[in-house]
Write a structure and sequence with these properties.
Elements: H1 15-45, H2 49-56, H3 59-92, H4 98-105, H5 107-110, H6 113-124, H7 129-135, H8 145-171, H9 174-181, H10 186-197, H11 199-215, H12 218-224, H13 234-243, H14 247-280
Length: 284
């Protein structure tokens, strides 16, 4: 009777098995990411740099890009501050309605952005509940910048809250309790202990917020009215260029947004690797 075979503990699988495991992932990544990106950049630069620059420098394109960046900056700042505060309250405190608020935070994941935009029109439109009141003071929300900001705030709400909440739950309260025992005040604990501890979670949340705000389309389309040189964002400009058969214009602005997103994500990874290198670098 032959002895039982020993399991291949610690041994790598055969090369063919590795190839068969990796190949579907490579194909999936190529079909969903590389081919669309390649097609977008090919369409943007097919007629050369001069044609690309000409499309990007059109007044309506520049105005759309400036408006998109403005909305992204405002939304990111608001969600960063309020997201951290909300995450701390949800993780560190218990209060009535906590489960309800937790569910509402994830609502943008479940509700279509178009529906979110429609809800804002119902509330803030000329005949809306709040729109009638604001109209008495000549304040306009829908089909104006405030409505676009509110719509983008809604669709980007969960990112900072969820990323920071995960970090807070993981790190616990030991360091904060120790600082409190040593006599540190609430603000000192936040700036010296809590904020440094959640910095990576906050950074990831900000990155996701920026990426989502740059690419938002549905909710903004509904509440903005897509008015050229007024309430037309970059994504709406892409849509308008496509509808008008200006495919080069659509490709060009898409490429600009794609380049911005790639720079942000690559920059984040570089900072992360540098930070990890500093952490594991032996001290002298």
């Amino acid at each position: 009777m032959s002895p039982p075979r020993k399991p291949f503990v610690g041994q790598e699988p055969p090369k063919l098995t590795k190839v068969l495991m990796i190949l579907p992932v490579v194909l999936y990544f190529t079909m969903l990411i590389l081919l669309p990106l390649g097609g977008m950049f090919w369409g943007a630069f097919e007629r050369g740099w001069s044609a690309f620059i000409q499309e990007v420098l059109k007044p309506e394109a520049l105005n759309a890009l400036k408006l998109t960046i403005l909305i992204t900056v405002i939304v990111t700042l608001i969600n960063s501050v309020l997201g951290v505060i909300l995450a701390i309250f949800l993780v560190r405190h218990s209060f009535p309605g906590k489960s309800l608020i937790n569910g509402i935070i994830d609502l943008p994941f479940a509700v279509s952005p178009v529906i979110a935009g429609f809800m804002l029109i119902v509330l803030y439109g000329p005949q809306g509940i709040f729109g009638l009141f604001l109209g008495k003071f000549d304040l306009k929300v829908v089909f104006a910048l405030p409505g676009m900001i509110i719509a983008t705030l809604f669709v980007t709400l969960p990112f900072v809250v969820r990323e920071v909440s995960l970090v807070l739950q993981e790190q616990g309260t030991e360091l904060e309790d120790a600082a409190k025992t040593l006599g540190a005040g609430e603000w000192t604990i936040f700036w010296k202990v809590t904020l440094p501890g959640i910095s990576w979670g906050l950074l990831y949340g900000i990155t996701l917020t920026v990426a989502r705000a740059l690419g938002e389309f549905g909710a903004v389309l509904v509440v903005s009215g897509n008015i050229i040189n007024s309430t037309q964002t970059a994504t709406l400009h892409i849509y308008q260029a496509y509808v008008d058969y200006n495919y080069l214009g659509a490709y060009a602005i898409s490429a600009v947004l794609g380049i911005i997103s790639i720079i942000i994500l690559v920059g984040l990874e570089m900072v992360k690797k540098k930070k990890e290198g500093n952490v594991f670098e032996p001290s002298h």
